[in-house]
Specification:
The protein has four helices and two strands. By secondary structure, the protein is mainly alpha-helical.
């Protein structure tokens, strides 16, 4: 049962860096798209560089979210793995331990951001929507 404590410690450890990355990534992606569209950069090298920079920032953010998604996915497999094992051939005490493990696994493990947001691919989509919303707001202000 140590892995629940490990995931909780990992969530506490990653909360501040992920919060900073959420906010800064949102602004960086929005800013680079804004530079391409509003400022009217026409130099192809500059546009390619800005698109590459946005892509790298988005890829860096996606690594954490992919890890969080894998934790959720693998924790959902715990019940299935326990059930498919030959638990019925174990002694009674071990069967009870497997049952407790299966009951605990009903709530999937996940890395959270200050116990508010699950770090998953879904939350990466939320960050992308925030960046677009911020971009649309700023673009509407300048037009």
């Amino acid at each position: 049962m140590e892995y629940w404590r490990y995931i909780k410690k990992l969530s506490v450890l990653l909360s501040l860096p992920l919060l900073i990355q959420y906010v800064s990534g949102c602004f960086i992606i929005c800013n680079t798209i804004l530079q391409i569209t509003i400022l009217g950069e026409r130099d192809s090298r500059t546009i390619i560089g800005l698109c590459g920079y946005s892509g790298i920032v988005f890829a860096q953010m996606s690594f954490y979210h992919w890890l969080g998604n894998e934790v959720i996915f693998k924790s959902n497999k715990i019940i299935e793995s326990c059930f498919l094992s030959k638990w019925y051939k174990l002694d009674l005490k071990s069967q009870k331990h497997v049952l407790i493990l299966m009951e605990r696994a009903k709530k999937p493990l996940s890395i959270t951001l200050y116990n508010l947001v699950f770090v998953s691919l879904e939350s990466l989509g939320v960050v992308a929507r925030w960046a677009y919303s911020l971009f649309a707001l700023i673009k509407a202000r300048y037009n």
